[in-house]
Amino acid sequence: MSDTRRRVKVYTLNEDRQWDDRGTGHVSSTYVERLKGMSLLVRAESDGSLLLESKINPNTAYQKQQDTLIVWSEAENYDLALSFQEKAGCDEIWEKICQVQGKDPSVEVTQDLIDESEEERFEEMPETSHLIDLPTCELNKLEEIADLVTSVLSSPIRREKLALALENEGYIKKLLQLFQVCENLENTEGLHHLYEIIRGILFLNKATLFEVMFSDECIMDVVGCLEYDPALAQPKRHREFLTKTAKFKEVIPITDSELRQKIHQTYRVQYIQDIILPTPSVFEENFLSTLTSFIFFNKVEIVSMLQEDEKFLSEVFAQLTDEATDDDKRRELVNFFKEFCAFSQTLQPQNRDAFFKTLAKLGILPALEIVMGMDDLQVRSAATDIFSYLVEFSPSMVREFVMQEAQQSDDDILLINVVIEQMICDTDPELGGAVQLMGLLRTLIDPENMLATANKTEKSEFLNFFYNHCMHVLTAPLLANTSEDKCEKDEIVGANKSNTVCPDNYQTAQLLALILELLTFCVEHHTYHIKNYIMNKDLLRRVLVLMNSKHTFLALCALRFMRRIIGLKDEFYNRYITKGNLFEPVINALLDNGTRYNLLNSAVIELFEFIRVEDIKSLTAHIVENFYKALESIEYVQTFKGLKTKYEQEKDRQNQKLNSVPSILRSNRFRRDARTLEEDEEMWFNEDEEEEGEAVVPPGEKSKPEDDFPDSYEKFMETKKAKESEDKENLPKRTPSGGFKFTFSHSASAANGANSTNSKSVAAQTTPASSNGSSSKNTSLTTSVTATKGSLVGLVDYPDDEEEEEEEETSPRKRPRLGS
């Protein structure tokens, strides 16, 4: 017994009457003690696990179809099929089944399908009535034949018997000869009867009858019979469509006649199922399950035969990428591939894997790159469909290709950039193609489906590539449509909203909304790559220009982008937002919206509510100090009052902590630090407030997060020590600069994850609001420091400075006092 002879695929029929592939393995028939009988066993070829264990039941009806298929039902709604690689293997297992059931292996069906309700009647029937007697095939008997065919459909036994009778007597061919006679005589009544007869025979659901009806010599007459539906005033012209309108295009001549015949047959049978036959009612839906299977297995066979013919596929690829190929020919080649990929969806996973690997090896991706950039809309659309099959199958394969390609060619012609440009240049007013391409891009840049192996991480490599080579192409329309606004705001601080330039063209707005959706996805999934990009390009400011668009959906997209950024609760982002005064466009949009209770209103309020609930201190302080006057009139929600309350609570907490400093910190040395912290933080943040008044962060300011907040604690200590050594000698005269240094080092801890910045900004900026408390506090601190002024110089040179500094950073009791 050779392995290939027993190699099978196991299929089960799902609820949608589609065959699901359960895997490939090797079949055997053995006695299974547990099941008390001979059984069919299929073990998976990949790991030897049991795919199928089915007892050969003496009463189960097994059907043999197309020489390599055995189909049967295990339970009322559980159909199984074994598809053999070789006919010899199928015959061998069929003999075993027939042996168990005591049947002659020449039969195609081992049992009559017995309905339980009819079992008793069937037992009483005399042996002589084994087959149904068919009326002679004559014109005047057509009505009788039609009545017989329609009457048996409700009974499984009678359907089986009628099928056997039709098969044995070659009856279908005789009926089709009568059809030609009726058509020549224009015998409408006879043609109507023939429609009922042929439709009824299709509903018998028998593969053996289908093979006769769908053979080359019969199929067009079958289609002809189905044109004469009695319910229609005029017959349909299906044959005319199939012979004249539908053209079989051979992009490369197919030499294999069997393959050609299969392709023709599959197209026509699919046409009968989809176009000619009416949608089956609930009672008839199972009548055509065998027809669905017939088409399904035909498609599997076509793909397999084409895939094995490597010469054919190589020729197709060569012509597709050849510059000399004319446009019409190339359109046909691309459409062929699109259909080929659609057919491949019927393959089982391992075979589909091999199919796409074959295409990749032959160069499908470089070929797509060429055709996706063409002017012909049809070609581009078909190429996009093929690309979507490839991305769905293996995003990693596409990513690997574009990264290799980046080493050899310019950014402009990279496959991903071609895809982005197609998305940007979609001419459809509804941007149907752009939406599809955006979905594919999202799949490609989704870290969830990126592989991490021992020696290389696809995620970091691909995202580095994407942000270096492709991101500028994606954001170009966004930056172009918001650029003038930026210039105006540079010239006029706090420029009026009417100066902003917004895309009022619906199609452009749709496109920008798509781009923003993708960028919002990046904010959620790409962490530092997108953070660097937003900071360097000042991207959020540009996006918020779109809050002024007359298209509310676009304003909401811009707001959603900002909401995702704030949702990360990342202090780098929070500092960027407060320094750039980026809440201003959002608050302007809320105020301009007036009293309208709409999605924009709700979304803006939800943004502020999130900041309140999550207690993001730095943003709360910024909003209350800069915008509370404009927002206090909004009383239909408690959000803004709640923010003010949080702000005041935090301010009180800071005051209490600063008041408790002198009593707890006894050392003169620490007293000096507490004083510098307070005075100089105020000074630093006062400077910050001046900066915040500016609409655009100058380039120097923009780089502050990276420069002023070192990544590691060691760097922070080096910076601190260097500054201290500068200041040592004249410290008493330069307390402000000492404090300035302290404040910056303090912020370094914020960059490392502490929340000190939040509270620090609150502490510093509360001073004007609570002058009484702070002035008395300042006085007491100043007095205490003055009293010990003489000892300050000596204290700076302590040899254990570094240890003490570390202690300040890490001590759980001291850190909140200084920083939180």
TrEMBL record:
Q: Which region ranges are annotated with the description Disordered?
A: 680-820
Which GO molecular function annotation, any one, does this entry have? protein phosphatase activator activity
**Gene Ontology BP terms:** DNA damage response
Residue ranges with Basic and acidic residues bias: 701-732
Q: Which parts of the sequence belong to the PP4R3 EVH1-like domain?
A: 5-101
Provide ranges: composition bias, Acidic residues.
680-694, 798-809
Q: What range(s) does the Serine/threonine-protein phosphatase 4 regulatory subunit 3-like central domain occupy?
A: 144-649
- PANTHER family, per database record: ATP SYNTHASE GAMMA-RELATED (PTHR23318), SERINE_THREONINE-PROTEIN PHOSPHATASE 4 REGULATORY SUBUNIT 3B (PTHR23318:SF18)
Query: What is the designated name of this protein?
Result: Protein phosphatase 4 regulatory subunit 3B
| Organism from which the protein derives | Vombatus ursinus (Common wombat)
